[in-house]
Design brief:
Quinone Oxidoreductase, Chain A, domain 1; Rossmann fold; 7-stranded mixed sheet; 16% strand; globular; binds nicotinamide-adenine-dinucleotide; binds zinc ion; ADH-like_N; zinc
């Protein structure tokens, strides 16, 4: 926690938002550890914010002071070639070309443009003439907050998993993204099997009609046994590069932590740093001809993949940062529905002011005290 100067309007398309709620994401945990070498002193993290517009630049005609908005984690212009294809996470106006990265992201280190993030009292929102989602004033923040990232991320993950009507979807990882992916699968009428080593995460998923399994060596066999020997039609990997059960890469992570930043960056860019237990298990478990959808983030350039099996099984693989704005118009009525069909009000386990962030980062990473999702309320 540090005091920094309040942000100011820099471009006519900027807005300044006073943050009322801002969540901690599993992606923040990568910055907290594996991607640490890309972080610099004074970087402001956070990319799941919402709040009240305080000020707008001269070119922002869609927003006014006092509007309540949710801010998508990717910064996109809305009118370039990629945005017009619904690929807002590849926006050509904000791409971080010097790092070879896609659209700039809030609070995500030099890899994604070093844009100050939203775990703060105030946020400067570039391209505010397109990005922010205007919402009503009656429902509590938590109904809307997850439109910033994890709800559209899970939606895209399930969409990409390409499960046929009435088919079987498996979701590896029942963190916040996996919880929503599993619930979205159930909402669409799929049979959903969720896998996670943490008991309270399995219990939460089970409350929403999801069958659950612990993660163990034989889990691919278990999945086949549950599905006529064939395996699930589609699998969402909502775990990513820090999967438990991958001892070798675990050691690589520790070694990276001991290197100076520049050397560690080099190692990230040339060595296999991902913990691949889940990805390789999913390749094994998915039905022949099925689809793997990676919502979980991977970070290495040289992580080994079982291409023989992938080719032989005729798999499809889809992945990527979520194109948040592409999905939010469909999701808005679902979060505003009084029946709460996706269960957005059953996810947050810990809340605090900004001052609680350091302790809650640690709790969330270590999965202590039943911690599943943290929301910070600056100024509350
Ligand atoms: N694609 C995107 O746009 C996007 C957006 C948000 C988050 N993410 C990524 O999604 C992933 C999940 O994020 P989250 O917020 O849910 O965080 P999280 O860290 O809480 O979730 C990860 C879950 O995986 C479980 N897990 C670990 N090892 C496992 C194993 N071997 N088998 C099964 N489960 C295992 C953990 O217990 C945890 O519940 C992260 O990689 C995050 O960066 C991607
Ligand atoms: Zn996130
Ligand atoms: Zn664009």
């Amino acid at each position: 926690m540090e005091e920094v100067p309040d942000p100011v309007i820099q471009e006519p398309t900027d807005a300044i938002v006073r943050i009322t709620s801002t969540a901690i994401c599993g992606s923040d945990l990568h910055l907290y550890e594996v991607l640490g070498p890309y972080m610099h002193k004074g970087d402001v993290v956070g990319h799941e914010p919402m709040g009240i517009v305080e000020e707008v630049g001269s070119a922002v005609t869609n927003l006014r002071k006092g509007d309540r908005v949710v801010v998508p984690f990717n910064i996109s212009c809305g009118h370039c070639f990629m945005c017009s294809q619904g690929l807002q996470s590849q926006c050509e106006t904000t791409q971080v070309k010097e790092k070879g990265s896609g659209a700039a992201l809030f609070g995500f280190s030099e890899l994604y443009g070093s844009v100050p993030g939203g775990q703060a009292e105030y946020l400067r929102v570039p391209h505010a003439d397109y990005g922010p989602i205007k919402v009503g004033s009656e429902l509590p923040d938590e109904r809307y907050l997850f439109l910033s990232d994890i709800l559209p991320t899970a939606w895209q993950g399930v969409e990409y998993a390409n499960v046929e009507p009435g088919g079987v979807l498996a979701v590896f990882g029942l963190g916040p993204v996996g919880q929503f992916a599993a619930r979205i699968g159930a909402h669409r009428g799929y049979r959903v099997i969720g896998i996670d080593p943490v008991p309270e995460r399995r219990e939460m998923a089970a409350r929403h009609g999801v069958e659950t399994l612990d993660y163990a060596k034989g889990v691919a066999d278990e999945l086949r046994e549950m599905t006529d020997g064939r395996g699930p039609h589609g699998i969402v990997d909502a775990v990513g590069m820090e999967a438990h059960g991958s001892p070798v890469a675990g050691f690589a992570h520790q070694a990276l932590g001991l290197l100076p930043d520049k050397l560690a960056q080099k190692a990230m860019e040339t060595a296999g740093v991902d913990r691949l237990a889940v990805l390789h298990t999913a390749i094994d478990a998915v039905r022949r001809g099925g689809t793997l959808s990676l919502s979980g983030v991977y970070g290495g350039q040289a992580s080994p993949m079982p291409l023989l099996t992938m080719f032989d099984k005729q798999l499809q693989l889809r992945m990527g940062q979520c194109n948040v704005r592409h999905w939010t118009d469909q999701l808005l009525p679902l979060v505003e529905d009084d029946a709460d069909p996706l269960g957005v009000t059953d996810l947050v386990t810990h809340r605090s002011g900004l001052e609680g962030a350091p302790a809650l980062y640690e709790k969330f990473q270590k999965k202590e005290d039943g911690c599943i999702k943290v929301v910070l309320n600056p100024g509350a």
